[in-house]
Amino acid sequence: MKSGILSTFYQQIGLALFVGVIASHTAQASDEAPPSLWDVVGSGLLAPQSAEARAASRELTEARYLERQVVVAGEPSTSEIVLPSELEPESSAPLGEQLDPVSNRLDPSEYDIPVELNESVERWLSYFKGNGRGFFTRWLERRGAWEPMIESVMAEHGLPNDLVSVAMIESGFSNLARSHASAVGMWQFIAPTARGYGLVVDYWIDERRDPVLATAAAARYFIDLQRMFDDWYLSWAAYNSGPGTVRSAIRRGESRDYWELSRQRLIPPETRNYVPKILAATIIAHNPEEHGFELGALHDPWEFDEVEIEGSVSLDVIASCAGVDLEAVTGLNPSLLRAATPPSATTTVRLPLGTQELFETTFAEIPETDRLTYKRHTVASGEALGGIAQRYSTTVTDIVRFNGLDNPNQIRVGLELVIPVPVGAPEAVESAPAPTRPLIIEVSSGQNLTIIAREHGVTRDQIIDWNSLTNPDRLSVGQQLIVGELSAPSSYTVRSGDTLSGIASSHDISTTDIKRWNNLDSNVIHPGQELIVSAPR
Fold first, then answer.
1. Could you give the 3-state DSSP secondary structure of residue 205?
2. Based on C-alpha coordinates, what's the Rg of the chain?
3. Vertex 439, ends 438 and 441: CA angle to 5°?
4. Among 159, 275, 408, 492, which one has the highest count of C-beta atoms within 10 angstroms of its own C-beta?
5. Do 140 and 293 form a contact (C-beta atoms < 8 A)?
6. pTM above 0.85, yes or no
7. So where are the chain's domains?
């Protein structure tokens, strides 16, 4: 008894630590999957996340943690591992011959994907009915919102309706969930794969969070995987671990049978559990009541109107014109990351069903000077929020609010700000001057020069020129690039009350740098003294 209590106690501690650490990573903008938990611990780049997004990521993390019980239970101990040639075939008897009394009544013709039962599938059936019941019940209730849309998209692509279970297993039908590997949305795409299937992932928009567009991308991916493997189990395995992993397993195992590759442990543990999990979810979802699930009200199907928005407009303005609250608009447009439509583009915005006519009438009557647009501004050396606000004809309060700044008096050189700008603002103030020092950025996974140039408001040729790139089409992850013109060193005039450490902090440099650049022997400075505050070029 005592051992069981301690085990439960340590599981709770482990869950708290695991969730806390992984949840902190889910707020990051990186597209790189950390190779270990400790890389997550050491990672500190946080990006703004809504409370809803944090909750969705936490739920996914907690579900994955509990699922590890099933994964570990299905893995042999080191003393039990045997050679592939010694493995006994896993039972995959006809459905009617299984022990589960409910499973005995299953009819394979009910499904449009291949369904079979074996020990692995039974293990996941037991988990979903047991420790995983809470999560699975919520997912079944959400299914009502998304099943009609997903089935419609799959039908358009000639794919099985039961692929809806893949979205359930991937994310629990959450558009906002972000995994520890930076996979995002209902179908849990990583950024490079998403871009490869036509989804936009940039500063303003992440279409992995758009359920309709992401479902269409997933359908195209499934079609490609089926062309490669012509087997749903292998295609799902490839969706989970990558086509290269599955091709390698097939080659090494000399088999195209998913269960055989699993028995030989030629695919990762998560992938060995991925297909059984999909099958178990599909079986229960077809008859949840027969499996003991008492569901609450199913979520209503997603229904909406659509309007076209030119340029950058705040979502609160759009919501007001439609006569609804902001949450109704943000909920229908989860791909819009900055609470606004992006500039220099036409964006399709979803509105609650039946509000299109009111929106179009009201929006047309709003003077352009009352509509906000947005600019991106990179903080330059010596800048303060008051000066930035004045330049863009906006207020410090609005800049602080839209950027979630904790301390408006502490902004660092190189920080990117979203600036709400009145549409009618004079042309002269719309573009901020270039930073007095260039930015040094690191190339992330999935980025190329075109993407980097667009994100920083420069051209591809400028980046090539600034970095003397001889092969601009070959970038490596982590490669450092200069973005901005090299310029003469900037200077600062010491004011009364200034300290050397304070000046260094406000210019994102060290006191050692200032002393070296200005030939100072001590930290003593005087009002009126001119100091170099950037490296001489």
1. strand
2. 28
3. 145
4. 275
5. yes
6. no
7. 84-291, 304-366, 372-433, 491-532
